Structures are given as structure tokens and as C-alpha cells.
Here is the input.
Amino acid sequence: MFSILWRLDRLSRFGLGLLIFLILLGLVGPHLPLGDPMRIGAGPRLTPPSWQFPFGTDELGRSFLPRVVDGIRATFLLSAVAVIITAVIGTLLGMVSGFFGGFADQLVARGADILFAFPAILAGLLIAAVMGPGQISAIAVISVATLPLFIRVVRAVTLGLASRGFIVAAQVAGASPWRVMMVHILPNIIGAVIVQLTYALSIGMIIESALSFLGLGVQPPYASLGSLLRQGSAYLTFAPWLVLSSGAVLSAAIMSVNLTGDAVRDALEPLKGRSLT
Amino acid sequence: MTAPLTPVVDLDRIVVTYGGGPFRRDGFQAVKGISLQIAPGETVGLVGESGSGKTTLGRVCLGLQPPSAGEMRFCGEAFGALRQRRGQLSVVLQHPEWALNPRLKCGRSVEEPLVVLGTPAEERRARVAAMLENVGLGASFAERFPGQLSGGQRQRVAIARALITEPRFIVFDEAVSALDVSVQAQVLNLVRELQDQHGFGALFISHDLAATRYISHRIAVMYQGEFVEVAEAARFYGEPEHPYSRKLMAAIG
Amino acid sequence: MSHIVTCENLVVTYRASNGPVRALDGVDLTISEGETLAIVGESGSGKSTLGMAMGRLLPAEAEREDGRMDVAGQPVFDIAANDLRELRRDLLGFVFQNPMVALDPTMRIGRQMQRAMGRRAGSEEIHALLERAELDDPARVAKSFPHQLSGGMAQRVVIAMASARTPRLLIADEPTASLDASIRDKVMGTLCRLRAESGASLVILSHDVHMIARHADRVAVMYGGRIVEQGPTGRVLDAPVHPYTRALLKAAAGHEKPGDWLTPIPGTPPLLSARCAACSFEPRCTVSEENCHTTRPEPREVEGREVLCLLAGTQTEPKEAAR
Here is the structure.
């Protein structure tokens, strides 16, 4: 496992390093002496960055740096929870679809197509309208948007595996479909799932930010990178540091996930190299 | 080799149609009414080009492909579901690199049919060790992963897995086709020896007539879903009857 | 007779994570213009490495350590990338085991043929080439995608592409191994006919002894990265001299009688990490003697062929008929 680290190129190492740094920052952020993200009037309103307030202050005089660190955590946590739940569901559905074929396959594959054709933001508005804005609906929207990614890949890989000797031999030996899937298929597709997981995570972060930007995700006074962006956009002309800081961190976060995803894919499929598609 | 025993596999006018359904009549007949009996201890070779339906017929014998018409009897009874036939039949397939689950140690692959049967762990370990010895590998191979093995060794592990439950019937589908000549001879000899020991009936599917006639007692030549010739293997050392069989013979030279 | 390939003491090593692997351990070989040479050997014998070395088509971790390989008078390991490209394009043609891998799945056959010919050839020219490769309906084939063709047809397309520029050397790596037994001989026949028409040389890499017996003028048997026996096909296959050739022929099904047992070769082929200082077949040899273990055999002329065996021709062993 660690030998993979040695094979990474500089770009991948940078991405992985950035990702680890951001996750650590999100985790230990509340314990760092950065100031209280909730304290109103910690300083004057909308002051530019200074030693005391490295990212400036917002319209309520809250220090912006601890709010961004809080936002990192909210964005990562929310997307990660959503994507992991989705990965489990999608992997199971994809395996069932690819292994059993027939009617179950038609049902799952066509369902995935429909979900895939559905614009995520529209789905988000619908779900938020039904369930009300908040973290639960944000998770639901991310799941709906990324579920087809998992189903499609897992189904395709499972189809390729299903005719291999060890799967057929297990079936002939009378192993139950559940056993075949858990013992023989899952361990052999987990790499593909992990690669898909990183892509889904970056999509999930974008969706979470978009929803929060629209006011449908994380609700005040809590912050996510998207809601901070929205907050800052109102003062873009005379306090650009709000948008710049939260936007830069959001871009960095998504970039780090994507670079890490590429690195994972390259490590698992060393022959294919880095392609543009 | 026409022993007066109940055949392990008895195919009665088997038809397999693909793509047809209750609402469609344009199905493709991969197997067109084939009858065949395989006696215990007998190996029947099945040769033919790809697309001749030989793999489909093999899948019927394994209970993986329900026939569209006709009946398959196993040891004199209706076949039923694969789960009822646990431990009674098994398969060895082409492509040694895919024969074994790359994530499992060989020992776990070999013992799987016993796990499915519910054999206690203690007994499983002993039988796996004995079977690995039996196929000429040695018990230490139980701890190895397939990636550390050569093609011939993997195929031996696959044969050990196929034999572990002492099945009555084994299908070998192109089981030696991907192996080097000298390794092929090892594996073919191993199968012959093991059959003498264990007395299973076997269907040996291959496009390689030389290997098939070496290992089989009888050979069925399949062409476009039908048998064009079924004869004793010795016949294929001389002059077989059907022109297509002779064409296959020509490839051996 | 001039030589299209001259290979002298060629040594090729693969760098691997657990140390170097010496795939070619000093190969001496010449191929005459217009001859068909079969290189026989099991996987790991080095035959593919030797075949690919003729076009310097070796993976990046392969390194030529010693010796030289001249193709059409050019030292392939020492010429500039540009010259190498020209050599591959104009003088060499390759046919690989699996035609479906050799063909681009996203492109119609006609366009791929055009690329192989290297110019905007008219459809009539393309059809003529396909027809020469004995494809019955060239117009339909040219319009097809690779997946719409059978394995045999696809391999004929590959053969047509390989011979499109009338190369002087065709290299075929297990050209019929992935095809049905019933059509193997015909496809091989096509390849040999095209070779004869153009007067090119043909190198067949294979372990199918029966096929080689029918199509090759000369056979080179490889073991442990060296050619252990080479000579006229009839002589080598009917009366092999090297113990390995004999063992290989006895292990192959096809010439036994009903009820006979095949004799497998015990043990496994060697994985060399350095120059082999002895006979590499010695550990598996049934007739070896003391000095086989200590002396590296050099090519000798025995019974009309070149053999790498210290004992060949000296022993009075029971004549074992291979057939």
C-alpha cells in the first residue's frame, strides 16, 4: 500500500498533501487558537485581512478565518457522508444488476439512466421543496446525483467478472449468490469503487456548495464553503476578501480531491496512464 | 466404455434457443436436439469450432443453462437446482489467470466447495492439504496467492478445487488450451490419473483434437449445434467418418 | 544468398523490481532473404523478446546489454529514432496473436487499411489487398468495424495490413493461436502465400509443432534465452538432436498411439539473472553428464544442424523416434 506513495508524481503528491492538510485543518480547526467562528462583534464589521483577522471579518464582525475552517469541515463531512452512503447502495445495486442480469438488471440500469439524465440542481430544488432545506436534503441530493456513477461502473466491472473461471466454479459448487458477490466479486471491484468514490466526492462537494450557495444546504449560523461564498457575494464590491478566501479554499479542496483521485486511479491501473478523458 | 451403469449425465434431445421468448420467434438455436450419455469414469471429448455450441452444451451439463426443450438427467434423477447438486459436479475452465480469485489464498479457493457443503473447518484443512498433494503441488501451496503461481500451477489448483468434494462429474472447458505444450502434457496426464483414482465422469471441451483424443474415451464432434460424429477416441487416430472431423484431423498433421 | 537478419550474441535484460531477468542470453541467428523461419519455444524461452527485438519493439524496461541485431543491414539497436521508424514502416510487417487487439475497435477496416498503406489509397486498391488475403467480400469487410468480423477474418485483415507495404520481413507472433483449429491451417496458408508472392522473409513465433512442420523452411528451438537447435525443419523435427527438442516433441499430443502416455518435461524453465555458465537445460535433462553442469555449450554442427549441447552426436543413446 505504501509503495504506491513512492510511485506518485509531484502533482499527485501535491494533491494528496493538500487533501490531508485540509482534512486535518477541518478536524482540529475548532481547537486551534483561530478565534470563535460564532462570536459576533469580535472586531469591526467588514475589515480587510490583517494580522488579527487573517481573512478579514464579515458583516457581523465575525472573524472569517475560523468560519472558513468550519466551512471546510462542514463541506467535507457532508459530502463524505453522502458519498459513502451512496457508494454502499450503488455498489450493491450495481453488483446485483451485473450478476443477475435479466429483469433486475433492466430495472437498475434504466433507473440509473433516469437519475443520470436528471439535472442535479433541479433535483435539489425539488427535494429541498419537499423535505425543506438543510443537511439531510443536501445529502439526499448528492446521493441522487452520484448514485448512477457507482451503479454504472460497478455493473460494468461485475459483468466483466461474471464469466471468469472462479465465479463460474463457485456457482457450480452451489455457492449462494450472496456468497459469490461478497467473497468473489466485491474484493475484485473495490478498486474501481474507490476510484469512483473520489470522483463522486468532488462532485458531492460542488453540489453541496451550490446548494448552500442557493440557501438550500447548511443553514446559518453554521457555515459551509458554499454558504460563506453566498454570504460574501453580497459584499463583493467593497469586501472581496470574503469571496476570495472562501472561493480559493473551495477550489483548492475540490482540486485536491481530483488530483488524489487521479493518483489513485493511476496506481490501480498503472498501464493506462493519465488520460484527458 | 459402455458400462451398464446409470450415466452420470444423460442428455435427452436438448435444445437451447437464445434470444427467443414467448413473444418472439426469431431465436437462435445454439444446440439443436442433442442426446448424449456420459458414464461414471468415462471422459467424453467435445470438439468443434467456436460458435458450434459446445460451450453452451457444457453450460447445460453444469446446470447453468436451462435447456429450452429436452431433458437433462443427473445420475438418473431430474437435475433440479444447482444448490441441490452441491459437491456433485464441478468445472475447470480456460484462462489460468482467471481460474482463481486473485484476492484469496489458494487454500481458500480449494476449500470453497467444502465450505458451501458445510464441512467443519478441521476436516477442510486436512482435505485441502491432501488434495493439493494429490495434484502434485504440496500442501504449502495453500498459503500462496494465485499471482505467485505459473499458469500450469494455477490450473492444478483449479483441478484440486474441482475434485475436493469427490464429484461425480466434471466439465473441462478448454482447460489446457492456454498452457504450454510441456505443461499441457503434465495437466492432461494428471487428469487421466485422477480419473483412474476417483472415477468421475467428464466432459472435455476443446478445439484441440490432439489433446482431446489423448484424454477422452469417446469424442463427439459438434458443428452448428449438432453432433456430426460421435465415436470411440481410437477412431480419431485413424480415419474418422465425417468430412468435418477429417478437416479437424488435418490440423494435427 | 544475402541475409535480412543477422543477430550476433544478442543479450537482452529486463529490469524488474526483484532484480534483472536475462531474456536473451546470447542469441546467434541469421535469416536469409525469402526464407520462412519458425522460432519454437515455451513461454519464457525468450522467443517473443527475440521477435520483437527485430523491430526494437521492446518495452521500456528491456535493455540490450550486448551483441547486435542487424535488419536489412541496419543495426536496429544503434540507429536514430527516425531511421528506426522508417525501417519499421517500410521493411517490417507484424502479425500478432490476437487480431482484435491489433485492430482499432473504433475505426472501419477500410480506413485502417488506408493508414497501413500510408497514403490515400482508392477503395479498389484496398479491396484488392483484402482479396489477396482471401477475404471473400472485400467491400463488406472494408465497411465493417473489427467486432463485426470473426477471428479468422480479423486475422486476415491484420495479415493484409502487415503486407500492405510489401515488407521484406514479416514477423508473426503465434498468428493462429487464438483462432479455431478448423481454420488455422488456411490462415497460415494465406500468410505463407503472401510471403511467397512478395519474396519477403517470414519469422513465425509459435509452440504449435504441427503447424510449423508444414510451413517453415527452417526451425530454431529456443530455451533459456538461447537457440539450442536450429536447422532445416524436416531434419530438426523428424530427428531432433538436442534433448530439449526431443522432450518437447514427446510432450506434444498428436503423435502418440491410443493408450500411450505423453511424457511431460519435469521441472520448470529457468529464469536467468546473469549469463548462464552451464547448459541451461541441464537441470531438466535426462541424459546430462558431469561437465554439462560446468561448461557453457557453444554452437556446434551436428547432423546437418547447429546444436547447443555438449553431448549431441557423441553419445550412443537409443535412437528415440520423435514421430
Remarks:
- Chain C has one domain: 3-307.
- Residues 318-323 of chain C have pLDDT under 50 and may be disordered.
